[in-house]
């Protein structure tokens, strides 16, 4: 019986958290269009989230391009289809691998960072002090961070995709004597707007999810300093899980449009 009670309690808590997250998202959409607009803080967050993630995204993208090409090459050689390597790698990276891997990397770095930062401000009562002084902490802290992640993630995905393609082209250049110009021309000839538009829209959604979850966990952090660590950890877990759910829905919807 205690097991049943525990499962019931966890299921109840899950639905409560989903409801609170939905309410938090609704409050964001209500506040985002209302003046005053915190442009200075938004630019600062864009720099923190976008520019400071470039190195991590570049290293990850480069290794993905190298590994994907090295792993796929022997199989394509067996079937005499190694000339299809740029097409296969390009479409795989642009459609799925690039956006998902970049989003997961950013979920680990950005969602945990936002959760820890806002959690620290909550437990040290800085957010309460902002409310008392007449500043809207939700608009200044939450709206700017969610907008910044939503805008920066597509740019990071494009940057990561290009680095991954460069890594793949490097392998083909060294092993297959394929020039960089020929490789990139083949990749861009294979890509269509049907590959680029869904991936870009998906990247905006990924950025929104990462910012939303990070802010939600940090803004309602409790239990003192221990709560800051819990907020950072749960932000990464929840953001990563939601990224896969959003990815599945996006791919499912895109597949329906492809069949029309």
Explain the overall architecture:
The chain has helices at 2-32, 39-49, 54-78, 85-123, 126-132, 137-176, 180-190, 193-219, 224-259. It is mainly α and 260 residues long. The termini are far apart.
List keywords for this structure.
elongated; 9 helices; mainly alpha; 260 residues
Query: How many strands in all?
Result: 0
Total helices: the number is 9
Main β-sheet, in a few words?
A: none
Q: How far apart are the termini? A: 51 Å
Taken as a percent bin, the fraction of beta residues is under 5%
Which stretches of 5+ consecutive residues score pLDDT under 50? Answer: none
Q: What series of H and E elements makes up the topology?
A: HHHHHHHHH
Counting helices, strands and paired strands, the structural category is mainly alpha
Average pLDDT score:
87
The shape, in one word, is elongated
Q: Compute the CA-based radius of gyration.
A: 21 Å
Helix share of residues? over 70%
Annotate the secondary structure layout:
Blueprint: H1 2-32, H2 39-49, H3 54-78, H4 85-123, H5 126-132, H6 137-176, H7 180-190, H8 193-219, H9 224-259
Helix pairs in contact: 2-6, 3-4, 3-6, 4-6, 4-7, 4-8, 4-9, 6-8, 8-9
